[in-house]
Specification:
Layout: H1 9-22, E1 25-26, H2 27-34, H3 38-52, E2 59-62, E3 65-66, E4 93-94, E5 97-100
Antiparallel strand pairs: 1-5, 2-5, 3-4
Helix pairs in contact: 1-3, 2-3
The structure holds zinc ion (ZN).
Zinc ion is lined by residues 66, 68-69, 71, 85, 87-88, 90.
């Protein structure tokens, strides 16, 4: 009998890539789908972003938007979500969403 296959980081990244190829997802959905913490998902996204570049695809980040004043965090290109709006200082931020294109 085969040993139970270990869920490795590589396996999770492959599943993440498949999900992001299929459609745009937020980290919370990805976290629930893959049974990983949101922090782990962010770490994987950073890794995936780097690993995709040579293949001509890229991780597309739909930026965070402040739901209080509409400020778009357009210049932010890291996967981690911002905590507060620099314009109105509120924390009603729609978190970023991700896709692979
Ligand atoms: Zn704001």
């Amino acid at each position: 009998m085969e040993p139970i296959m270990e869920v490795t980081s590589a396996t999770i990244r492959q599943q993440l890539i498949e999900l992001l190829n299929a459609g745009t997802c937020g980290v919370r959905e990805l976290s629930q789908e893959l049974h990983q913490s949101e922090k782990e998902i962010y770490d994987h996204l950073v890794h995936i972003e780097r690993s995709l570049k040579p293949g001509g695809k890229q991780l597309v980040i739909e930026p965070s938007v402040c739901q209080a004043c509409g400020f778009v965090f357009a210049e932010r290109n890291r996967p981690q979500p911002p905590g507060r709006c620099p314009q109105c200082k509120k924390s009603h931020i729609r978190r970023p969403r991700y896709a692979i294109r």
